[in-house]
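Regression test case RT-17, inverse folding.

Input:
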């Protein structure tokens, strides 16, 4: 019987093929990882937004009011009245267990699953960066408070008042993955204003002074152009539903 010839790849051909696969993988895997991470951060932000919104809505419902300033939680903010704006203040520079803030944070726990209310120390090694990669703030140099939720979300530099002010009745930053890096505006760090109506308004949204889509300010822009600071990225993500930059 006539034998049929069999064909096989040579070692050189196999090595060339593996080399091509390696090059393609090196080119595509970083992009895939980046896109995946963006989806994770977006989902975490949407989840944190939903949790906070639900908490403030329950707060209003429990006290049968449409004003957070009239709820037991916000009425428990103590201290000296602000001579310019009126009302009492519990801001990020105060110790969380101070006479001004102690009752407020105790009452806040009724509506949010809080793991810790902490003050940053130099040992925390926590700092912020702009979207363009430049450093913004080093918390190790100051005393700043943060509300850490059970899911790892961190409400950083919270500023709450017993009376409505130009920024609402509160404002803060949401760090969706806590102290984990990159701690960068527009990636895992976003600013929100809390309205007296219990609604969270993202910075850079249409309701803000500067809309991310039309602003000429490098601060409010949300573009991966190496220039934008990224403050307005909260508005962009909440509007588009994805990290499209």
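Golden output:
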């Amino acid at each position: 019987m006539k034998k049929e010839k069999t064909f096989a790849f040579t070692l050189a051909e196999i090595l060339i093929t593996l080399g091509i696969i390696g090059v393609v993988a090196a080119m595509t895997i970083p992009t895939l990882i980046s896109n995946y991470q963006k989806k994770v951060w977006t989902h975490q932000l949407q989840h944190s937004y939903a949790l906070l919104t639900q908490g403030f809505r329950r707060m209003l419902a429990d006290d049968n009011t449409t004003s957070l300033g009239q709820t037991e939680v916000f009425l428990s903010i103590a201290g000296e009245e602000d001579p310019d704006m009126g009302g009492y203040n519990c801001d990020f520079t105060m110790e969380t267990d101070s006479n001004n803030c102690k009752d407020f944070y105790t009452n806040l726990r009724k509506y949010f699953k809080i793991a810790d209310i902490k003050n940053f120390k130099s040992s925390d090694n926590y700092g912020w960066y702009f979207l363009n990669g430049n450093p913004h703030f080093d918390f190790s140099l100051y005393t700043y408070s943060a509300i850490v939720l059970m899911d790892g979300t961190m409400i950083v530099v919270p500023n709450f008042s017993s009376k409505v002010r130009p920024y609402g009745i509160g404002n803060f930053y949401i760090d969706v993955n806590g102290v984990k890096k990159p701690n960068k505006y527009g990636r895992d760090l976003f600013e929100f204003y809390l309205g007296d109506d219990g609604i969270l308004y993202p910075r850079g949204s249409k309701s803000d002074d500067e809309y991310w889509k039309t602003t000429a300010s490098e601060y409010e822009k949300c573009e991966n152009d190496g220039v934008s600071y990224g403050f307005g990225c909260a508005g962009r993500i909440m509007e588009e539903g994805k990290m499209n930059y």
